UniProtKB/TrEMBL annotation:
It is an enzyme of class 2 (transferase). It comes from Paracoccus gahaiensis. It holds the Pfam family MS_N. GO terms for molecular function: magnesium ion binding; malate synthase activity. This is Malate synthase G. The gene is glcB. The lineage of its organism: Bacteria, Pseudomonadati, Pseudomonadota, Alphaproteobacteria, Rhodobacterales. The keyword Metal-binding applies. Involved in the glycolate utilization. Catalyzes the condensation and subsequent hydrolysis of acetyl-coenzyme A (acetyl-CoA) and glyoxylate to form malate and CoA. Pathway: Carbohydrate metabolism; glyoxylate cycle; (S)-malate from isocitrate: step 2/2.
Length: 717
């Protein structure tokens, strides 16, 4: 169905979108619609052709790499020859001379504090608000409601579990905020005087081992919270003897509230399905509401209607009677799409235009509402806009992004480098040239982050023709992956990110396996990362505990200057040296097929960009476009090397489609894929695998967008 358009400065703009910009985004920013669209037309004039040329360069390099591998036949891996070849074709670029980033004014959550980073699809207002409010999380709820204390209870209140939770929380306090004597488990009363916190243990007053850890007191209704701080993260001891949990404790402690998601990425990219003007308006409208501070969402929960809004800041009274205000919300960052896709929302010369350029203009324009606020809670007190830029390949693309945002700032009348960029290190050409990429963004870089999921997909795609890749488990311990993670931290430290920008690690993709996360994810701060991604507020609260155990700044000091793992390690693909065992192939084939279908069917038919999908062992996995890219690229690679045949893949897809249908039987909105196997969802999954070797960088976006548009058209009939 053709939608009405408006002609603006030579652009054909979706009419509803143009109205959204004029009536909702721009009022209050001081930018007139005419100036906006004139600037937009200039943006396309200046950068449209270059954007296409950068994509052509990706394709050219990939074709040369494919040809090189094919030309080598079965010769053994030759790291020196490969590196020389990559240098010759310009895949590897010269290293910059030593430098330190100079990113201007950024917030403490970016520069100095270390803690969890929550990611959320911004298209879902209920979740997006929840993510913003996940700055503070109940430790009691996170322990009680997750698998950390054993299987999640399904029945009524479990008093034994409550006692175990209370004991575990006391252990956390003893580790992070110990008393001079005794344990928090034995506290009979908490109080405060002008010297700080006073706990009563065995009838005696006991102070904190570190008296400076006491910040002050916060009263909220019946609750009195004693606010403490450790490693820069606050912890509240919430006292309320009248509360059922507080009543069960001698001290009246009813909760331990952790400062958790220091920052949250509101995602316009891999966790959302936004393919047309209404979708993009939905995404931008939520981001706008967050930046204006007035987003709200009402929904039914437990039979009651709830309305969710952004939480206020928290006022704490210090012992000297002065007030200190703590941020009530996570610092919000926005992830734009990458350079690849184009959008029909804005056309020029009859052609769709780069979606990344639209995200750049519109998300920054929305964020101006935060920058221009004169009262009420602010997002960035440093006056910055934080844009996460994903899927960039190498320094030229990073430099391109830098110039695009400089143009956006000029059009919107913002001081240079107001927009800070987060560099996702998630494509191989970026990892291999990381220092040069950071250098290209040095005046606005606010993070580097190892997006290991996309990175794994790109690893397979780049070396698609080199041979068959090892299976998933072996990939997790492959030398390239360790080199990638370690190099990222060390290169970041060498570029002076400590104290100036975040060094981030990737997503915990098993949202329900939080006991396992608690064991494993401490590895992120230990590796020198000042933040790491979590999929939910509960995971943020639990991951916060790691930053009380590890002092990241001290860890970064230890790591700085250590030798950077050799580039050859990063560049050596994890190929199977012998035929893969048949049982492993069969299992991984089914697993990948199930994961792809389980994700794609909700994306294409229902527009859900991020889902929990059970794997073959019934472990719920977070699936987004990056995890889908991995599965599709695995199968495409095995197809390319005869590990599996097309017929076998088709059979597995059909069999797994029936299984996914059964898994979704309880969803009234679900449309089964079997027995026809001819709907857009099934065909999207099939496209992703069978054409995976030919998709640009192995991305899933082109197939998903096309099939979602098809499904929408069918549904509109
Ligand atoms: C490779 C990459 O790019 S990773 C980055 C992209 N991935 C993400 O952003 C993952 C974000 N996470 C999610 O979308 C979800 O957690 C999923 C899809 C994994 C699971 O969703 P669900 O099955 O609905 O979660 P579940 O039922 O366990 O929990 C729902 C509750 O948790 C909250 N919640 C879950 N995830 C989030 C989140 N990321 N942010 C805020 N709140 C969240 C919901 O608001 C809801 O609480 P409410 O009822 O009070 O509103
Ligand atoms: O975006 C994150 C990733 O792992 O990919
Ligand atoms: Mg990614």
């Amino acid at each position: 169905m053709t939608r009405p358009t408006t002609s603006l400065h030579g652009l054909e703009v979706d009419a509803e979108f143009a109205t959204f910009i004029a009536d909702r985004v721009l009022p209050g920013t001081g930018v007139a619609p005419d100036a906006f669209w004139q600037g937009y037309a200039a943006l396309l004039d200046n950068f449209g052709a270059e954007n296409r040329a950068l994509l052509d360069r990706r394709a050219e390099l990939q074709a040369r790499i494919d040809a090189w591998h094919k030309g080598r036949g079965n010769q053994p891996w030759d790291a020196a020859a490969y590196r020389a070849f990559l240098t010759e074709i310009g895949y590897l670029t010269p290293e910059p001379a030593p430098f330190t980033i100079d990113n201007g004014s950024v917030d403490p959550e970016i520069a100095t504090l270390a803690g969890p980073q929550l990611v959320v699809p911004v298209s879902n207002a209920r979740f997006a608000l929840n993510a913003a409010n996940a700055r503070w999380g109940s430790l009691y709820d996170a322990l009680y409601g997750s698998d950390v204390m054993g299987p999640v209870p399904s029945g009524g209140f479990d008093a034994a579990r409550r006692d175990a939770v209370v004991a575990r929380a006391a252990e956390v306090l003893d580790q992070a905020l110990p008393l001079l004597a005794g344990s928090h488990a034995g506290v009979e009363a908490y109080g405060a005087d002008d010297q700080g916190l006073v706990a009563t243990v065995a009838g005696q007053p006991v102070r904190l081992a570190d008296p400076d850890a006491y910040v002050g007191t916060r009263v909220d209704g019946e609750d009195t919270a004693y606010v403490l701080v450790h490693n820069g993260l606050h912890v509240e001891l919430v006292i309320n003897p009248g509360h059922p949990i507080g009543a069960a404790s001698a001290s009246g402690l009813r909760d331990v509230v952790m400062e958790a998601a220091l920052s949250a990425i509101q995602d316009c990219e891999d966790s959302v399905a936004a393919v047309d003007a209404p979708d993009k308006i939905g995404v931008y409208a939520n981001w706008l509401g967050l930046m204006r501070g007035d987003l709200e969402e009402s929904f039914d929960k437990g039979g009651k209607t709830m309305t969710r809004r952004l939480n206020p800041d928290r006022a704490v009274t210090r012992p000297d009677g002065t007030t200190v205000t703590l941020q009530g919300r996570a610092l919000l960052l926005v992830r734009n799409v990458g350079h690849l896709m184009t959008t029909e929302v804005i056309r020029k010369d009859g052609q769709p235009t780069p979606e990344g350029l639209m995200d750049a203009m519109v998300t920054v324009a929305c964020a101006m509402h935060d920058l221009t606020k004169t009262d009420g809670p602010r997002n960035s007190r440093a006056g910055a806009v934080y844009v996460v830029k994903p899927k960039m390949h190498g320094p030229d693309e990073a430099a391109f992004a830098d110039r695009v945002f400089a143009h956006v700032e000029a059009v919107l009348g913002l001081p240079a480098n107001t927009v800070k960029l987060g560099l996702m290190d998630e494509e191989r050409r970026t990892s291999a040239n990381l220092a040069a990429c950071i250098h290209a963004l040095r005046h606005r870089l606010f993070f580097i982050n190892t997006g290991f999921l996309d990175r794994t997909g790109d690893e397979i795609h780049t070396s698609m023709q080199a041979g068959a890749f090892l299976g998933r488990d072996a990939m997790k311990t492959a030398p390239w992956l360790a080199a990638y993670e370690d190099r990222n931290v060390l290169i970041g430290l060498a570029a002076g990110l400590k104290g100036r920008a975040q060094i981030g690690k990737g997503m915990w993709a098993k949202p329900d396996a939080l006991a396992e996360m608690l064991e494993a994810k401490i590895g992120h701060p230990k590796s020198g990362a000042s933040t790491a991604w979590v999929p939910s507020p509960t995971a943020a609260t639990l991951h916060a505990l790691h930053y009380h155990v590890v002092d990241v700044a001290a860890r970064q000091d230890e790591l700085e200057g250590r030798p950077i793992p050799d580039l050859d390690l990063l560049l050596t693909p994890a190929l199977a040296e012998a035929p893969l065992p048949e049982d492993k192939v069969a299992r991984e084939l089914d697993n990948s097929a199930q994961g792809i279908l389980g994700y794609v069917v909700r994306w294409v038919d229902q527009g859900i960009g991020c889902s929990k999908v059970p794997d073959i062992d019934d472990v719920q996995l977070m699936e987004d476009r990056a995890t889908c890219r991995i599965s599709a690229q695995y199968l495409a690679n095995w197809l390319a090397h005869g590990v599996v045949s097309t017929e076998r893949v088709e059979e597995a897809l059909r069999r797994m489609a029936a299984k996914v249908d059964a898994q979704n039987a309880g969803d009234p909105a679900y449309r089964p894929m079997a027995p026809g196997f001819d709907g857009p969802a099934f065909l999207a999954a099939r496209d992703l695998v069978l054409t995976g070797a030919d998709q640009p960088s192995g991305y899933t976006e082109p197939a998903l967008h096309a099939r979602r548009a098809e499904a929408k058209a069918l549904q509109a009939r």
